[in-house]
Amino acid sequence: MTDHRQDEQRPKSNEPDPYELRQTENEDVPKEFTGASDNRKSSSNGKKGNKQRFWIGITALITFGMFMYFQGPNGSIKDVQSNGIGKGMKAGIQLVAADDSAGLEARDFNIEMKKNTTTGRMLIWDFAAEDGDVVTVKVDGNILQSNITIMHSPVALDIPIPSVVEITGVKDGGGGITYGVKFPGAVQNNAYFNAAPVGSSNVYTITGQ
Fold first, then answer.
1. Burial class (CB in 10 A: 0-12, 13-18, 19+), 120
2. Closest CA to 165 of 208, 122, 118
3. What is the pLDDT of residues 160-202, one digit of tens each?
4. Most buried residue, 22, 73, 94, 96, by CB count within 10 Å?
5. Distance separating alpha carbons of residues 47 and 160, to the nearest angstrom
6. Using CA atoms, how far apart are residues 58 and 111, in angstroms rounded to an integer?
7. Which residue has the higher pLDDT, 11 or 198?
C-alpha cells in the first residue's frame, strides 16, 4: 500500500525531453527538402564562381588588348624587304640577328607629318646586330649630328618641318650598315628600314600639311 501511494504522489511529467525534441524535429524534416536546400546553396556558389571567372576573363582580354595597342604589331624582315616600310611597327624593333641577312636595298622616302606640325623628332636605331655601325645625320644640307654609333635603343633627334634629312653611312661594323627610323607625328605610323653603304646617303623628305 505504501508503494502504491508513493507512485500516486509522483505525477508523471508531460514535458518532452529536450534531446528527444531535437531528434524529433530533425526526423520530421523530409530528406528531399534538405537535399534541395543543399542544391540551392551549391547552385548559388556555382553562379558566383562563374561570374568571377567571367570578369577575370574580360579583364585579361582588356589588358592584352591594351598591351598590343601600345606596343604595336610585331614583324619580321620579310614584311619590309619589298619596300622598306614596317607598317605600324614600333621604334627599336629588332628584325634580324645580323646585318648581312637583312637583304635591304638603299631607298629614299617621303614622310608626311600631321597638320600644323612645325617641329618633330626622328628616332634612329640598329634593327640588326649592334656591331659598331656609324652614321651621320644632316638636315637641309647641314650636319645635325655626326658619327652616331647606332644601337638597339633608339636615338632621338629634333628636326624642323618641312625639311630634308640625309643619313650617310660612315663606318660599317660588319655585314653592311642597316638601320631603322621612325618619325613620331607622321600621318602614317610606320617605321622605315634602310641600308646605307659607306659614303652613300638615304634621303627623307619631310613635309607638313
1. buried
2. 122
3. 999 999 999 999 999 999 999 999 999 999 999 999 999 999 9
4. 96
5. 60
6. 39
7. 198
Answer whether 0.85 is exceeded by the pTM.
Answer: no
**Cα–Cα dist 74/83, whole Å:** 17
- Encode pLDDT of 67-86 as tens digits: 444 444 567 899 999 999 99
Other residues' Cβ atoms within 10 Å of the Cβ of residue 79: 16
Between CA 176 and CA 181, with CA 177 as vertex, the angle to 5 degrees is 145
pLDDT of residue 4: 46
Could you tell me if 168 and 135 are in contact, meaning their C-beta atoms sit under 8 angstroms apart? yes
Rg (CA), the chain: 40
